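Translate sequence into structure tokens.
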Amino acid sequence: MKKILVTGGCGYIGSHTIVDLLQNGYSVICADNNSRSHAQVLKGVEKITGVKVKNYNIDLCNFDDTCAVFQENPDISGIIHFAAYKAVGESVEQPLMYYENNINSLLNVLKCALEFKVLDFVFSSSCTVYGNPAEIPVTEDTVWKPAESPYGNTKQMGEEIIMHTTKQNKNLNAVLLRYFNPVGAHP
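Result follows.
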């Protein structure tokens, strides 16, 4: 059974992804400091799936704490990185907080992925990478415009970091997800 590390797994998208992973036969661990989410969400996951998911309540901006998750779980086979601050307005008011959190957490998770040879990586990006696009509808090939918020800029930077990293590390597989207003409920 493949083990997947889901960062930000107590958030909306992360917790729904955990349910889907468990229902499809994966083993899952979570890393979420619950600064913008609630650990009780994992009780709901357990109620739906019958599986108790271990959460590492750590700040992914702390490299040693992040590496400790990988050391304790040498069988991690993939990472889905949802952990990030995401409020556009707040990012305008507190840009350095967004750059520090969103970029440093990504760098630490990527460094650990490479160090521990976890070569399948999914990054939760955003439609904000397109800025104010010249054409609508946008496609994956739409040219980026300057981000209109620090949050959007952290997602542009994150994608670029991952693309540069995969060019230098040919065995690292990465997928970038760009959401447009995710909504829904789990049955």
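Note: The longest helix spans residues 95-115.
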